[in-house]
Amino acid sequence: MADRRERLNSEKLLKRYAAGERNFSGIIFSSSTLDGEDLRSIDLSEADLIRVDLSGTNLSNADLSGARLLCANLTAANLEGANLSGADLSGADCIGTNFRDANLNETILSGTDFTAADLCGVEMDDAIVIAADFRAAQNFSSPGQGSLVCKTFWADGDFFKGPDWYE
User: Which Pfam families does UniProt cross-reference here (predicted)?
Assistant: First the structure.
C-alpha cells in the first residue's frame, strides 16, 4: 500500500510555518536541512525527519512524539519543553542540545550522542538506550524507570555494559 503522507521540502514547510501553520503531523521530510530556523511550538508528531539537519534550530515546545529522527543532526538545537515521547532518535547527533524539561519517555536512543547536552528535568521512562553517549551531559544521572540500557557511556565517562532494566 502506498504511503499517502504529505512530502515537504524546507522551502514549503518554512513558507507555511511563516503563514501561521503549525500542524505538520505525519509529514515526510528526509535528507534536507532546517538548520538554525525558529520552529517553536511546531507539531511534527509521527513525522519522518530522517537525516534532516536541525542543528541550531529552535524546536522549543515542539511536538515530536512518535517522530523518526534517524541520523538527524540536532547539534545545539533548542528542544526545551519538547515532547519526544515515542520518538526514534537512533544515530542522532544531540551534541550540546538543550533538552531542558523535554519528554523522552518511550524513546529509542540507539547510538544517540548526547555529549554535553543539557538534560535538566528530562523525563526518560521506558526508553531503550543502546550504545548511547552521555559523556559530559549536564544534569543527567540515568534513564528513568522501565528503561533498557546497554553499552552506554554515562555523563561521568563510566561505561555501562548491561543489559539491564532500570526500576
Answer: Pentapeptide (PF00805)
